[in-house]
């Protein structure tokens, strides 16, 4: 009999306990619940992410094409220049169509001028090639710095609106709604950091790739000038 009452009491207690349901949120719900300001901020960050990815991949393919280098290229140039076949050397450079070959072609076109003039012409051509390689890369650096600040701006706006709701309700605002507004506002900071990190990593990767091409051009320029300095 005692066991019966104990079992019945446990069943009654179990019925009185509220069911605990786990609340989940999707990314779309967070964006929609963020209000007009939050949606504008998220939309802006989405545009910046698209621009960052476009610039990164466009520059990556361009730099990869520019970094192609034939190890036998300078040997062929040396043979043509040594034999006096400057036109053949120019044709060889035109066939390569890379920054290295364009620098070499610029130097070949100035053969006969003082060595200092040839060096200056190669340096000027090198600056133009570096400018072409770095085209729009600064956009990634700008996005890397601006995206987190834009996300933080969205969070600040959301916090101001949440506390404004608390102030206008004379301190009687429902804590659930207040907390929901706060964590929804925080999503803009998360989105801004994600976009900023992606842009920052892409920018640094392109800088490393560009530096390799620049070093390759410098080495080729030195080899070409050494070739002109060789005794006949």
From TrEMBL:
<feature type="transmembrane region" description="Helical">
    <location>
        <begin position="182"/>
        <end position="203"/>
    </location>
</feature>
<dbReference type="GO" id="GO:0017038">
    <property type="term" value="P:protein import"/>
</dbReference>
<keyword id="KW-1003">Cell membrane</keyword>
<keyword id="KW-0813">Transport</keyword>
<feature type="domain" description="MotA/TolQ/ExbB proton channel">
    <location>
        <begin position="97"/>
        <end position="218"/>
    </location>
</feature>
<comment type="similarity">
    <text>Belongs to the exbB/tolQ family.</text>
</comment>
<dbReference type="InterPro" id="IPR050790">
    <property type="entry name" value="ExbB/TolQ_transport"/>
</dbReference>
<dbReference type="Pfam" id="PF01618">
    <property type="entry name" value="MotA_ExbB"/>
</dbReference>
<keyword id="KW-0653">Protein transport</keyword>
<keyword id="KW-0472">Membrane</keyword>
<dbReference type="GO" id="GO:0005886">
    <property type="term" value="C:plasma membrane"/>
</dbReference>
<keyword id="KW-0812">Transmembrane</keyword>
<feature type="transmembrane region" description="Helical">
    <location>
        <begin position="137"/>
        <end position="162"/>
    </location>
</feature>
<keyword id="KW-1133">Transmembrane helix</keyword>
<protein>
    <submittedName>
        <fullName>Biopolymer transporter ExbB</fullName>
    </submittedName>
</protein>
<dbReference type="InterPro" id="IPR002898">
    <property type="entry name" value="MotA_ExbB_proton_chnl"/>
</dbReference>
<feature type="transmembrane region" description="Helical">
    <location>
        <begin position="38"/>
        <end position="57"/>
    </location>
</feature>
